[in-house]
Fold this sequence. Notes:
CATH superfamily of the largest domain: FAD/NAD(P)-binding domain
CATH class of the largest domain: Alpha Beta
Shape: globular
Distance between the termini: 35 Å
Domain FAD-binding: 13-353
Largest sheet: 8 strands, mixed
Helix content: 25-40%
GO molecular function, one term: FAD binding
Strand content: 15-25%
Number of helices: 13
Strand order of the largest sheet: 5-4-13-14-15-12-16-19
Keywords: FAD, Flavoprotein, Monooxygenase, NAD, Oxidoreductase
Number of strands: 19
Radius of gyration: 22 Å
Pfam family, one: FAD_binding_3
Structural class: alpha/beta
CATH topology of the largest domain: FAD/NAD(P)-binding domain
Protein name: Para-nitrophenol 4-monooxygenase
Low-confidence stretches: 1-7, 419-438
Amino acid sequence: MIVRNDEQADTLDCEVLVVGAGPSGLLTTLLLAQSGVRVILVEALPDIDDSPRAMAYGPAAVVELERAGVAQDARAVGMEPGDYNSPIRWITIDQKEIGRFGPEDKIPGTFDNVICGQYQLAEILKRHASRYENTKILFDHKIDAIDEAEGSVVATLLTSSGERKLSAKYLVGCDGGRSTVRKLLGLSYDGFTLPQWLVACNVSGYPFLDHGFTRGQFIIHPEHFCLIGKINPQGLWRVSYNEKEDLTKEEVLANVHNKFEAMFPGPKPLSKDSYKLEAVSPYRLHQRTAPSYRKGRCLLAGDAAHACSPFGGMGLTTGICDAAGVADCLVGVLRKGCPDSLLDKYAEIRKDKYDNVTHPVSYGNTCRLRDTDPEKAGELEFFKIMNSSREARQEMMKGAYVLGHDFRQYWPKVPEIQHNKEPSLAHKADPANRLVDV
């Protein structure tokens, strides 16, 4: 049963309109649907974007995926038993190890990692959200205008069948770094663009593990800094590397094999027949944020709100934490009796998380990979701490939870009722694992 907030809700197409069917938009939709909120998700593309993007999710994001009930589905797609105990390493291009996080560093009582291609995670989220009668997912719906009326927001959408208008109490823009929602709201995207290209490739058929690689490694090198990691049990790997800024896109694509020759382990010269390039996507690296994640009845989350280098593992992880936060705040306002000002708190806190966590960590790791002499990398304080003890590594891992924030703490307190029932997965999976919450 769907509980409506007031009579006006009956005259609207939905209570929340979400724009963008990436993982951030789909997770926002799913969490709202699970709380009985009437939600419509619109996406300009004819289906979910399958270009190579994220593949691994930080601890704070894993908490939210567990709460939504999709984490194990994602693991089933992206992982096999050996992946749970494989280390993450920082190495030189000739495989000298500089530092690592290993299975022995896992904090007791915390969730297992999640590795799953962004496209596959989005498909899982779509499948879960589609089960709810209070949810609609509409592809081929491109947002073209946003107008606010008293108590509602109206979006004009362009479809293959013509123009369509949808009304809601609130709108959430999760439509990526080139966000139309952000532009329609007149919000800037402040920051800078790194000079290098990032080239994200999906590669199959190459025996990385046979040549000494683990499930995931960062290579420190001024010219060939990169991330090489396993995406799924079928032998698909992600190879994300930098390319010279003065090359054209066509030159970047023509130089893929030469880059692989430099970065791949194993015998040289590297044969073009030893691997299959499944997908390649060159794009620019950005460190940018909107000045506010709220304007009127519209909010921003994920890349629509901010962008960062993927080499710090903070991009989609931040987006997932945004999605959980904006969903919890909207549930608070629409279902829990919270004031509308809770949405200002969302905008303020998530912007602070980007400014003081996501940006410095992501840019710092990029610079660490790019600007460090590989032979002297072990002298950096980051690796000195990492290599000092297991306890030190666990403290570093605890810090990863800072990116999350539980906005449900601002809901009205309800007296606990004791039941002789097994608590739900979402309840068991959550607050104990929010190790750090600021």
